[in-house]
């Protein structure tokens, strides 16, 4: 049937003149328009909701809900699906049973490695899944002129990406100093989005006052980087959709729960940004954030609205976000409106999950793989930090956040070089350029990793340019990390006494695995156990490690060019 015939049939089904395809009887329907929970039936035809209400429709298949609540399919308003470490079909299998119907993804991780072909690869891999994956055109490839990425996307590339299917707008504009300074290369990308009238996402950690006003004046309407109450309130007051973030290493939900309960944050939404399979399987996804919000006192209907209709409207997805006639049939039957445990998930009119298990069987497409870890020769001597005196700049981790603090302290030395002392909680971090084999290696000392004995951890996931990031106590173990990552084409690795304790290969651009979610979870747990055996107390040590090189988040970062002070926008000498 053509579009006209489908519309005609939907109207007939709604009027009771023709049976639908699926009927959900006796549900308690969350109305995201009125904020009420209303008893009724839902009839679906050709992937769309034809009718909602007390009417006695008929359908080819009927399911009795017994008064269980029905909500729209949930939407993650901002995430990097590469950070889940899962290829799109495997990510869908993990998220669909949790009630997630759509994600708004910024593919700047793979774009920083592979450029436009990487984005096109993600679009192809996510086609036809029971989880709609929408993308934003990456604005930050590289994030700043201080980065060494594998590709460069200029305004012309953004124009090209904005014409691709399922690309909704311009992804987080991370170079906020460039926006404030009127940088032509940065603003040319913003202009490309403004001309098309599409949404522009922001990335403005800590920005307040007149500087924030200037940033919003560029047409940037969303931000996921708020960490403090006054910062979020200022952004909301200027019309930004505050994306309340709760990921594996960024925990901001608890800070903003009082604002959500008091309904003071305007059109907020929920986002995970960067979340690992361990957290997905153990806690859930957007449904877990809804659970916590309702526990804190947010009315269930309001919480659901901000996880469905609000992000859908913000990103121009006018056909979803509500259980109502004429909307896409993305609906979730929950066990209740406290735990938000899905019993039944319908996507596009098809049942895709029951009782917490996916029933969708997708096509496995062949995936061409190439090793993207290209490094110059590395020796153990490259991991020795020379010190003229004892005082050195220190990158201090902040628990539960991806911001860091910078300080200068006396450090233990031997023969003019930093040496490991367990009581000082200091490790050497090295960031190695891995795209052009340039030989660039930046060093810096990090506090907060908690090493109690000799060892090292390494990763090819190093936001946002994804060079190699290694943290350890001695040159030999750090070198073994590099060798393992180069061999596998990227991944995570933990090493002690010259031996690999645990590893997770990530051969897809050094970012993602070809394995299923449970296997990836198991390997991550082995890695976390290995990190703990070295003394690291962090709940997500490799997620934390991956943010050490990010030169757009305050305060001090380790890049292939050296230590970088984000606030001052300049490099810092280590001696």
Quick take:
By secondary structure, this protein is α/β, with parallel strands linked by helices.
3D structure, described in words:
The longest helix is centred in the last third of the chain and has 17 residues, at 517-533. α3 (108-114) crosses α4 and α5 runs parallel beside α7 (184-196). The mean pLDDT is 95. The strands form five sheets. Strands 1, 2, 3, 4, 5, 14, 15, 16 and 17 form a nine-stranded mixed β-sheet that branches. Strands 6-7-8-9-10-11-12-13 form an eight-stranded parallel β-sheet. The chain is of the alpha/beta class and 575 residues long. The protein is 27% helix and 27% strand. The chain has 17 helices and 30 strands.
Give the SSE map:
Elements: H1 3-14, E1 20-31, E2 36-45, E3 48-53, E4 59-64, E5 69-72, E6 74-79, H2 88-95, E7 100-105, H3 108-114, H4 116-125, E8 132-137, H5 155-161, E9 167-173, H6 176-180, H7 184-196, E10 200-202, H8 209-216, E11 222-223, H9 229-237, E12 241-245, H10 253-261, E13 269-271, H11 277-282, H12 286-296, H13 300-306, H14 309-314, E14 331-334, E15 342-347, E16 350-354, E17 357-358, E18 391-397, E19 404-410, E20 413-414, E21 417-418, E22 426-432, E23 441-447, E24 456-459, E25 468-472, H15 475-488, E26 491-496, E27 499-505, H16 517-533, H17 541-546, E28 556-559, E29 562-565, E30 570-572
Parallel strand pairs: 1-4, 1-5, 6-7, 7-8, 8-9, 9-10, 10-11, 11-12, 12-13, 18-23
Antiparallel strand pairs: 1-2, 2-3, 5-14, 14-15, 15-16, 16-17, 18-19, 20-21, 22-23, 22-25, 24-25, 24-26, 26-27, 28-29, 29-30
Helix pairs in contact: 3-4, 5-7
């Amino acid at each position: 049937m053509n579009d006209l015939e489908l519309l005609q049939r939907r109207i007939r089904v709604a009027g009771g003149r023709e049976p639908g395809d699926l009927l959900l009887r006796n549900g308690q329907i969350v109305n995201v328009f009125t904020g009420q929970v209303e008893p009724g039936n839902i009839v679906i035809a050709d992937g769309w909701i034809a009718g909602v209400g007390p009417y006695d429709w008929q359908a080819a298949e009927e399911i009795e809900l017994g008064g269980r609540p029905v909500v729209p399919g949930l939407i993650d308003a901002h995430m990097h699906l590469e950070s889940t470490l899962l290829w799109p079909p495997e990510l869908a299998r993990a998220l669909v049973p949790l009630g997630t119907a759509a994600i708004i993804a910024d593919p700047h991780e793979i774009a920083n490695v592979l450029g436009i072909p990487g984005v096109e690869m993600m679009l192809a891999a996510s086609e036809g899944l029971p989880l709609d994956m929408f993308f934003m055109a990456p604005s930050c490839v590289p994030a700043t002129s201080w980065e060494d990425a594998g590709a460069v996307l200029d305004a012309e590339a953004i124009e090209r990406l904005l014409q691709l299917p399922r690309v909704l707008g311009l992804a987080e504009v991370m170079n906020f100093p460039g926006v404030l300074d009127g940088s032509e290369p940065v603003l040319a990308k913003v202009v490309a989005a403004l001309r098309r009238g599409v949404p522009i996402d922001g990335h403005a950690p800590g920005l307040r006052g007149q500087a924030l006003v200037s940033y919003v004046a560029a047409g940037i309407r969303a931000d996921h980087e708020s960490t403090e109450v006054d910062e979020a309130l200022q952004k909301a007051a200027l019309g930004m959709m505050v994306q309340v973030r709760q990921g594996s290493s960024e925990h901001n939900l608890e800070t903003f729960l009082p604002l959500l309960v008091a309904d003071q944050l305007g059109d907020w939404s929920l986002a995970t940004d960067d979340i690992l399979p361990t957290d997905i399987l153990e806690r859930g996804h957007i449904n877990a954030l809804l659970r916590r919000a309702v526990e804190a006192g947010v009315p269930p209907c309001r919480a659901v609205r901000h996880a469905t209709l609000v992000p859908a409207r913000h990103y121009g997805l006018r056909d979803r976000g509500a259980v109502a006639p004429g909307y896409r049939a993305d609906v979730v039957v929950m066990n209740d409106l406290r735990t938000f445990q899905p019993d039944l998930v319908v996507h596009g009119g098809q049942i895709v999950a029951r009782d917490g298990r996916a029933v969708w069987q997708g096509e496995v497409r062949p995936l061409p793989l190439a090793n993207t870890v290209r490094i110059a020769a590395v020796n153990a001597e490259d991991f020795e930090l020379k010190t003229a005196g004892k005082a050195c700049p220190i990158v201090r981790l902040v628990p539960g956040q991806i911001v860091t603090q910078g300080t200068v302290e006396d450090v233990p030395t031997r023969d003019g070089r930093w040496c490991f002392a367990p009581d000082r909680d200091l490790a050497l971090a090295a960031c190695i350029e891995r795209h052009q084999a340039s030989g660039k290696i930046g060093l810096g000392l990090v506090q907060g990793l908690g090493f109690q004995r000799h060892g090292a951890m390494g990763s090819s996931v190093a936001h946002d340019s994804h060079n190699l990031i290694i943290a350890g106590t001695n040159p030999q173990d750090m070198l073994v990390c590099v060798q393992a990552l180069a061999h596998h084409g990227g991944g995570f690795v933990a090493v002690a006494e010259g031996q690999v304790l645990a590893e997770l290969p990530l051969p897809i651009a050094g970012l993602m695995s070809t394995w299923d979610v449970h296997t990836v979870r198991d390997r991550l747990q082995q890695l976390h156990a290995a990190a703990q055996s070295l003394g690291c107390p962090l709940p997500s040590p490799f997620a934390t490690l991956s943010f050490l090189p990010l030169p757009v988040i305050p305060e001090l970062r380790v890049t292939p060019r050296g230590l970088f002070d984000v606030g001052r926008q300049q490099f810092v000498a280590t001696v």
